[in-house]
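Known limitations

Structure tokens in this collection are predictions and should be treated as such. Users comparing against experimental data should check residue numbering before alignment. To illustrate the layout, the record for Putative oxidoreductase, 2Fe-2S subunit is reproduced below. The input appears on top and the generated tokens appear beneath it.
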Amino acid sequence: MSNEEKKLSPKQRSRRNFLGQSLTAAGAAIAAPSLLNSCQNKTADSASNDLVEGETMIRLKINGEFQKLNVEPRVTLLDALREQLGLTGSKKGCDHGQCGACTVIIDGERVYSCLTLAVMQEDKEITTIEGLATEDNLHPVQMAFLDNDGFQCGYCTPGQICASVALLDEIKNGSVSYVTPDLTSPPELASLSETEIKERMSGNLCRCSAYNGIVAAVQQAAGQTPPSPAASIENQQVEEVS
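Generated tokens:
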């Protein structure tokens, strides 16, 4: 204790200690974010360059561009997209392959990215919702969802749109479904029925129940004239009664 402090009363010394500790704590609080950011930046830099134990480097082609990632073998494609590449359009809903919010397109087929491992996707063409539009031009399916109110909260919409794009390609390639009346005569875009669309989109859930708009969006993207929203609701009520 200094001579100056000895001259102070115990109460004054306690007050001085309290103020000193408070200022020290305040200084630490101000400095902490910058120190934390510095540590995070160093961690990010080392993660991008150096493999840690248990990781392997993979090369994925996503939306037409190659990306190099260091991942553990157990990392899902969904987590790699969201956590390492910042492609957060693909949503994590159930993380069990039950809702379809994480749907992406791999080699022309729709895939639940939460159920496939990132290390399994090397040398494959991966398209996420971010890769459908070209510059300022939306994909026709994206425009159709806007035109027909194919969403409400929007959380499932990226998966719904990717699934719809893949659905249309499946029809073009002559794919049949469980409800196709004649398996020797695959449906065509111009004659794609509402029943076919609902069956083929059944793996994508919408908790807001914007299903009428989603079906209408697929019909528009297929080149058909979708029914008005009022007509769609009326048809649905007739089906439920019958």
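For this record: The chain is about 45% helix and 10% strand. The domain at 56-131 is CATH 3.10.20.30 (Ubiquitin-like (UB roll)). Please report discrepancies through the issue tracker.
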